[in-house]
Amino acid sequence: MTRTHCPYCALQCAMHVESDGAGGHTTRPAPFPTSRGGLCRKGWSAGALLAAPDRLTTPLMRPAKDAPLRPVGWDTALDHVAGRLAALRAERGPDAVAVFGGGGLTNEKSYLLGKFARVALATSQIDYNGRFCMSSAAAAGLRAFGIDRGLPFPVTDLAESDAVLLAGANVAETMPPLMGHLSAPRLIVVDPRRSATAERALAVGGLHLAPRPGTDLALALGILHAVRAEGGLAHGYIEERTTGFDAAWRHCAGWWPERAELTTGVPAADIRAAARILAGAGRAHILTGRGSEQHANGTDTVSAWINLALALGLPGRPGSGYGCLTGQGNGQGGREHGQKADQLPGYRRIDDPAARRHVASVWGIDPGSLPGPGRSASELIDALGTADGPGALLLFGSNPVVSAPGAGRVSPRLAALDLLVVADFVLSETAELADVVLPVTQWAEEDGTMTNLEGRILRRRRAVAPPEGVRSDLEVLHGLAVRLGRSGAEFPADPGTVLAELRAASAGGAADYSGATPERLAAEEALHWPCPDGAGTPRLFLDGFTHPDGRARFTAVDHRDTAEAPDADYPLVATTGRVLAHYQSGAQTRRVPELAAAEPEAFVEVHPDTAAHSGLVDGQWARVVSRRGATEARVRATPGARSDTVFLPFHFAAGQRANLITDTALDPVSRMPEFKACAVRLEPRERAGSGERP
Ligand SMILES: Nc1nc2c(c(=O)[nH]1)N[C@H]1C(S)=C(S)[C@@H](COP(=O)(O)OP(=O)(O)OC[C@H]3O[C@@H](n4cnc5c(=O)[nH]c(N)nc54)[C@H](O)[C@@H]3O)O[C@H]1N2
Ligand SMILES: Nc1nc2c(c(=O)[nH]1)N[C@H]1C(S)=C(S)[C@@H](COP(=O)(O)OP(=O)(O)OC[C@H]3O[C@@H](n4cnc5c(=O)[nH]c(N)nc54)[C@H](O)[C@@H]3O)O[C@H]1N2
Ligand code: SF4
Ligand SMILES: [Mo]
């Protein structure tokens, strides 16, 4: 029996992995304050992942562009990849090769992947799927506080709060054990849908505010307006601990609740009720999730929620705060160690000369040889295989054929590449298109560290032996780097050695891991970064914010409409998100029989009147059509839904991909795509009502 953490989300529930006596493995919860001894259904069934019948155990390669993938030996695969990369680079320069990472990778993998791109390939072209996930909240957090840590306080603080506002987070499905910390506070849930979390709030006397998708910014301004009218501003705190209130207020002054109601559809009385709850709470928290953030105005929207939190005096006040709920298993650590286009380890900026000098000295290279910032994820995908874009892509830990916005454009871009290399443990929809597939170890088969939503550094421990034939991501990077002429010692395959180097590279940076020694990590799981001296920082901002003047900054923001407005042809707004049983692109959970059976197919949640208007009834297959494409989903008639809005989960493949319809518009600051709002129409699918799956 080995104690480790869940393969999936950022809550990183602790679990024991043990043999089931029949060659398989089971999981059960282990004590851990964050998960309170709980696991969700995905955690309980995670043992089945280790036994996936189509687990990859040998490298695959296409002998010619259109030929099928065939098993080959590791040396053949790695020699081929390194040879092609070197040739492309010689022909077209280092930026001809691109790298795409993921927020599920351990800290060690994220770090080595960033170093591999900058040192072994010398390319600026690296980004990762966290761009699709956390980037707007990260950008807004940096703007306001000078640092970006999802929750700047432990999850257990929430249980002591009097009121918690959850904006665009459906934690009852996306982090179920977190609900255990939310039974005491009054809940205000902001979600266009009557989500499972909204139901829970209503059941215990809380509030559900259901704005039109993409209008949270106006709602936050409306609530702030009402807070001021209620006399709820924290004047002393605003004076002593912040700057910029007056400029921010100038945009807010016109958003009295009745005007906010016109834009958002949330009744003015509910806006005032929310303001009263927050202003009257001794301790309160505001938390944002992807519903507020995944918009072309996502950064400003998060800034508006942070402004509200600052006006109430919450951040840095003991027992209160603002936080963003990170998403992927290592959503936090994955954004600190350099797989982001503009970043070096320790959350340093790649365009900062001092940061370049520090990291180059740890890497033993000339700072001048480090590339500059590259393209953001969505822009990188658009550039693949174009005249001045990369001709090769190495992909670790993402499945963009399913999860990238406007997914219909992704496969043609991948097909235009000279070389697509995917490292995965299953043949994901993206791996299916690769020229070379490298089979890697997964979660319980490897050691490493993960940083959960509280900035808490955890140990992922090896609990089972990997199947014969697979290698770890670190071994893959090591093998490629050596073939590209770097020394093996520069790219260690041992996670402990990588952690030691990561600690040195992060030292003195915002996300300082230098005190995260193996001994310290082994002792207890309560080490929150920054931890320069090994003591850790569970709560940030108690004495001051990270900006040089120690103050938090209000940001002057105003409402903007979504990139795409509904019209006569596309009269509805579609928003997208998650269900309990599936994880992300579904590459993993669609392979777990229990989870696949629970949610076997795509659905579209739609108000019964809206369905009827489109000639549809509950249970019928519909086509959901946007300007970019169409997807198929079974109608789930939902009386609690807004009549102008439909919802689709994005976990399904092929013709059921929600991302076939999503908008590729980007937030100007974070480059976050607008996953959460696009204009659509519904129509019956051809074989409507037959009950057949497409
Ligand atoms: N079961 C499960 N859990 C997961 C994951 C998973 O795939 N499956 N993924 C993990 C990851 S990576 C992430 S990022 C997190 C995400 O966790 P959440 O942010 O909780 O997940 P979502 O379902 O994407 O979005 C939350 C809610 O936003 C609402 N929403 C849509 N548009 C808007 C809007 O304009 N405003 C507001 N206020 N709300 C809106 C949706 O209706 C939805 O209920 O979950 C993590 N946990
Ligand atoms: N419409 C819509 N689209 C969305 C979202 C949305 O709300 N709506 N949410 C966005 C968000 S928040 C996110 S985080 C993304 C996530 O979307 P993806 O980036 O596609 O995430 P996953 O499905 O987790 O893909 C991970 C892949 O890597 C593999 N993998 C897992 N661990 C490892 C590892 O350690 N090493 C290697 N080499 N491979 C590994 C898995 O088997 C899987 O194939 O989707 C985004 N897309
Ligand atoms: S809540 Fe997240 S970490 Fe916990 S068991 Fe479920 S998927 Fe795993
Ligand atoms: Mo995410």
TrEMBL record:
Superkingdom, taxonomy of origin: Bacteria
Any GO BP annotation: respiratory electron transport chain
Signal sequence, renumbered to the chain: none
Keyword field: 4Fe-4S, Iron, Iron-sulfur, Metal-binding
One cellular component (GO) term of this entry: membrane
Domain 4Fe-4S Mo/W bis-MGD-type: 1-54
Keyword 4Fe-4S appears in the UniProt entry: yes
InterPro entries in UniProt: Asp_de-COase-like_dom_sf (IPR009010), MoPterin_dinucl-bd_dom (IPR006657), Mopterin_OxRdtase (IPR006656), Mopterin_OxRdtase_4Fe-4S_dom (IPR006963), Prok_molybdopt-oxidoreductase (IPR050123)
GO molecular function: 4 iron, 4 sulfur cluster binding; metal ion binding; molybdopterin cofactor binding; NADH dehydrogenase activity
Keyword RNA-binding found: no
Matches recorded under PANTHER family: NADH-QUINONE OXIDOREDUCTASE SUBUNIT G, RESPIRATORY NITRATE REDUCTASE
Protein name in the entry: Assimilatory nitrate reductase catalytic subunit
Taxonomic classification: Bacteria, Bacillati, Actinomycetota, Actinomycetes, Streptosporangiales
